[in-house]
Amino acid sequence: MTTSLPDAPGASPADDLTPMLLAAWQKLIVNRSQPYAVQQLDGSYRWIEELCTLDLLAAHLRGEMTLALASADAQGMCKWVCLDADTPDTLPQLVALRGVLMKLGMPGVLEASRRGGHLWLFFAQPLSAREALLAVVQALSQARPRLEDAGLPLAPLEVYPSTGSVGMAGTLAHAMRLPLGVHQLTRERYPLLSATGKPIERPSIGLQLRWLLRQPRIRLQAVQALGQKRLQTLAALPPQHARLTSPAALWSPPAAAAAPDSLAPVDTVSPMAPTSGAAEGMIGTRSPVIRWVDAHISPLDLLADDAPDSEMKQAGRGYLGWCPFHDDRAPDDRGRPGRPSFYVVCDRRYGWSWRCLSTNCMQSLGPMRHAFRLFQLLQEVSPSTAIRMALSRWPVSADEEEAQT
Q1: Cβ–Cβ < 8 Å for 178, 30
Q2: Angle, vertex CA 403, rays to CA 398 and CA 405, nearest 5
Q3: pLDDT per residue over 322-355, tens digit each?
Q4: Are residues 97 and 167 in the same domain?
Q5: Does the structure show a pLDDT above 60 at 164?
Q6: Are residues 164 and 37 in the same domain?
Q7: Which residues, including other chains, have CB under 8 Å from residue 42's CB and lie 6 or more apart?
Q8: How many angstroms separate the CA atoms of 209 and 21, rounded?
Q9: What pLDDT sits at residue 15?
Q10: Which residues of 34-56 are buried (b: 16+ CB within 10 A; e: fewer)?
Q11: Distance CA 271, CA 77 (A)
Q12: Pair (206, 256) in one structural domain
């Protein structure tokens, strides 16, 4: 989805970018002025070790260059969180998600993108990225079942800032392309969207920017309430469920066990735990089908059948491959080639489990997951639909388990 900006009579589309308007935009969007990243013609980015000035922000809006800025500052503070859906045809889910988050006190601004969309969550004041992400993950956990009930299961999302940059002073957080710019690879300008998913029609970039700046911000009280609820949920988990691998140790409450130093997964969730809701604090499931899939189906077999591009290969005591839920093949902001980030391991006590090790993938958050959750995500369906599909795919064994129960 793209949009054009017709010229106003006797004026260029960008001549209303006043210094006052640009200063307001800078205050809202810029976490860290130096360095900034510039998008290249092939879609990649290069960091520039200079200050991002008002003139550069104006050049981005005029389409003369395309900027991406760090999603947190050097102290781990952020003014916004961006949820990036890179899967095609995911705008209906993002529109629905925006509506649910609005009801939870987290209004957002939706922007179309090359493959999906970006949902920007702007805060009324700068927050620590840890505090912001705790609230966002809690809001997503509450939104997920509502979307599934509406037949719009939540698409895989990348989150910026990522958990890897949280609380680490001096870390250069992942960059995010700013709204209202021209994508250098496609030469298209992707529009801001209304609550119904329709492009915001304004005759100039300045007027579109004014519309964006008028949108409501997320108040500190809403962030604190959701974050506290998240910590209470995690505190209620048994110790083996609360142990999280780094860098997702962010989500552990203060009383939880410390995470190991390495990224190697640990035994966090037993096969009896629900794969469709472990991150939301559920510690069991009554579904015999879910239990059977978790106990008997290997994630490697699911990936081989439903996501063969993962190309899983043995790595240490587990397996590593390309993540089916985000684009880890793409070069990073420094032009370095992508690396496989999807990890699967089999433990003698807890069986098969998996997670993504990339800190900007939503599947890196929370405890390890099991086979049923992977099956559900790969099929992009709700838990109830995934149960029916599992009964159809493994009819004899799953039916026997249900009959025994």
Answers
A1: no
A2: 95
A3: 998 888 777 655 566 778 889 999 877 778 899 8
A4: yes
A5: no
A6: yes
A7: 184, 185
A8: 8
A9: 61
A10: ebbbbbeeeebbebeeeebeeeb
A11: 37
A12: no
Is 5 within the bounds of a domain?
A: no
Residues 6+ apart with CB under 8 A from 75: 169
Range of the domain at 279: 238-404
Tokens 């960091």, residue? 47
In a domain, 285, yes or no: yes
Picking from 75-89, 248-262, 319-333, which range would have the lowest pLDDT averaged per residue? 248-262
Per-range mean pLDDT, top range of 35-49, 261-275, 349-363 = 35-49
Residues 378 and 271 occupy one common structural domain = yes
Residue pair 3/47 in contact (Cβ under 8 Å)? The answer is no
Max Cα–Cα distance, the chain, nearest Å: 78
- For residue 63, give the amino acid letter: G
Rounded Cα gap, residues 219 and 75, in angstroms:
21
Q: How far does CA 51 lie from the centroid of its chain?
A: 28
- Residue 72: pLDDT above 60? yes
Q: State the CATH number of the domain containing residue 37.
A: 3.90.920.20
23 in helix, strand or coil?
A: helix
| Alpha carbons 43 and 130: distance in angstroms, whole number | 29
Examine the domain organization and report whether 136 and 41 are in the same domain. yes
Cis ω before 247 (30° cut-off from 0): yes
What is the spatial distance between Cα 111 and Cα 124, in angstroms, rounded to a whole number? 19
| Cα dist from 361 to 155, 163, 247, 323, 358, whole Å | 12, 9, 12, 9, 6
Q: Among 192, 220, 248, which residue terminates a domain?
A: 220
User: Does residue 105 surpass a pLDDT of 50?
Assistant: yes
- Of the pLDDT bands very low, low, confident and very high (cuts 50, 70, 90), residue 283 is very low
What are the structure tokens assigned to 25, written together? 């935009």
Pairing of strands 313-315, 318-321: antiparallel
CA distance 184 to 189: 9
Mean pLDDT of 387-404: 69
- Mean pLDDT over 143-170 rounds to 75
